[in-house]
Amino acid sequence: MVSLLLAGLMAASAGTAMAQAAGAGPATEDASAADGAAPTAGRVRPAEPASPSTGPATGAAAPGSDTPAGGETAASPAASDGAATPAGVVDADAAAGTAPAGVATDDAAADNAGNAADAGTGDATPVLFEEPRDEKLPHDLSPLGMFLAADWVVKSVMIGLALASLATWTILLVKGFEVFSAKWRARAGVRRLAKADSLRKALGDERSAARWGGPVGRLARSAAGELERSAGLSADGVKERVAIGLSRIEANAARSLNRGTGLLATIGSIAPFVGLFGTVWGIMNSFIGISEANTTNLAVVAPGIAEALLATAIGLVAAIPAVVIYNVFARSIAGYRAILSDATALVMQHLSRDLERGATAGRDLPLAQAAE
After folding, report:
1. Ramachandran area for residue 4 (φ above 0: left; ψ -120 to 50: alpha; else beta)
2. H or E element in which residue 348 lies
3. Is 316 exposed, middle or buried (0-12, 13-18, 19+ CB in 10 A)?
4. Which residue has the higher pLDDT, 365 or 359?
5. Beta-carbon neighbour count of residue 56 at 10 Å?
6. Contact (CB, 8 A) for 26 and 41
7. For residues 202 and 355, is the Cβ–Cβ distance under 8 A?
8. What whole-number distance in Å separates Cα of residue 290 and Cα of residue 305?
9. Pick from 11, 87, 95, 279: CA 20 to 30 A from residue 133's CA?
10. CA 46/CA 51 separation, integer angstroms
């Protein structure tokens, strides 16, 4: 009995080896060699080993049979219809004509995967999805467009800075003409005082003295009037009173010319901070827009930042010229005060000469005339 079982196992192994040898050749061929060819028999499922505990293998001779063991397996695979085929082995001739269902399914899946790969690597342009544009965002990024689309706080800042800039240029025109004309008249009065040898000659007649306007003319008239009112009094007292009057005239002239320049200093000092306030407010609105739109798209952030930078730019446009113009006026007014100082010195010189002449004339007169 044991010998019969061993003979059956050997016969089954021999049959399986022959079937595998018959299908090994076609299994190595490339499936893409022939267009439309069916899969070869090499893609058969591997045979499961027969278990000795299940009894005699298929194809082995039954006990007591006269047929030699493995007699059926030695024949051609195309044996009679009643011949048994070993378990898990597919007929090579049948496999050559028709492929198993599982193998055909695998080939179709492979073909579909290849077609998908070809489609992915083709010339098709990938589709880009754009985020919907927010209609509230300004489409015009010009200065006027950004101003119209800005928040009311930013608009207020821009309007205030624009008015400050307008005031700066207005002061430049008005005050510039005033300073130029004042300096021209002061220089003319200094030349007139320098040519004369006394206050009366410098003033001339009453009509000429009335036409002599400006601070220098007021200096000369003030000194001449105090000299007339102080006739017969001490010369030192006269000089002191005249000096007080001249200093007041000089201070009033300088103060009048300085009027308006304080606004330039204010604009130059606070305009950058006002522009910075607009910048901070615009950036705050930008972050609020990001949180409301739930996106980090630059189109959401850019308008607010642009508005903020526009406010800063307007602040600088208002502040820089204001500072420059203020410094120019400060130097011009300092030069004007220097001219008034020269005029005051000339008036005091003429006053001193007139007092000396009066004292000398009084000493030369007889005592009776001097008393009169």
Report:
1. alpha
2. helix 298-364
3. middle
4. 359
5. 19
6. yes
7. no
8. 12
9. 279
10. 15
Q: Write b or e for each residue in 58-85: b if 16 or more Cβ atoms lie within 10 A of its Cβ, otherwise e.
A: bbbbeeeeeeebbebbeeebeeeeeeeb
Please tell me the predicted confidence (pLDDT) of residue 283: 85
Joined tokens for residue 365: 């007169």
What's the rounded Cα separation, in Å, for the pair 327 and 264? Answer: 9
Do you know the residue count of the chain? 372
Q: What angle do CA 311, 315, 316 make, to 5 degrees?
A: 120
Rg, Å, the chain Cα set: 59
Half-sphere exposure of 263 (CA within 13 A, CB side): 14
Compute the distance between CA of residue 131 and CA of residue 77 in angstroms, rounded to an integer. 68
Task: Please say whether the dihedral angle defined by the alpha carbons of residues 54, 55, 59 and 60, taken in this order, is positive or negative.
Answer: positive
Distance, CA of 343 to CA of 215 (rounded, Å) = 9
Helical residues (DSSP H) of 205-297, grouped into ranges: 206-211, 214-229, 235-258, 261-293
pLDDT at 30 over 80: no
Domain boundaries, the chain: 2-120, 145-371
- Who contacts 79 (Cβ-Cβ below 8 Å, separation ≥6)? 72
Q: Which residue has the tokens 């930042």?
A: 305
User: What's 30's DSSP letter?
Assistant: -
In the numeric block, which tokens belong to residue 190? 């200094």
The b-or-e profile of 332-358 (16+ CB within 10 A means b, else e) is bbeebbebbebbbebbbebbeebbeee
Residue with tokens 């599982």: 102
**Amino acid, res. 281:** W
CA 90 to chain CA centroid, nearest Å: 75
Q: How far apart are CA 187 and CA 121, in angstroms?
A: 90
Are 337 and 250 spatial neighbours (Cβ–Cβ below 8 Å)? yes
Encode pLDDT of 314-328 as tens digits: 999 999 999 999 999
Q: Is the pLDDT of residue 94 over 60?
A: no
